[in-house]
Amino acid sequence: MSSLKERIKNKERIILDGGMGSQLINYPEYTGKDPSLLNITHPEIITAVHKSYVDAGSELIIINTFDVNPKRYENYAEIIAAAVSNARAAGAPYVGLDIGPIGELMYPMGLLKPEDAYGYFEAVVKEGVKCGVDFIIIETMIDQNEMKEALCAAKNNSSLPVIVSCAYGKRGRLMTTGGRPEDVAAIAEEFGADAVGVNCSFGPDLMLPVVEAYAAATSLPIWAKPNAGMPQVVDGKPVYNIGVEDFKEYMKKIEAAGATLIGGCCGTNPSYIEAIK
Ligand SMILES: [Zn+2]
Question: What residues of the chain score a pLDDT lower than 50?
Answer without folding.
Answer: none
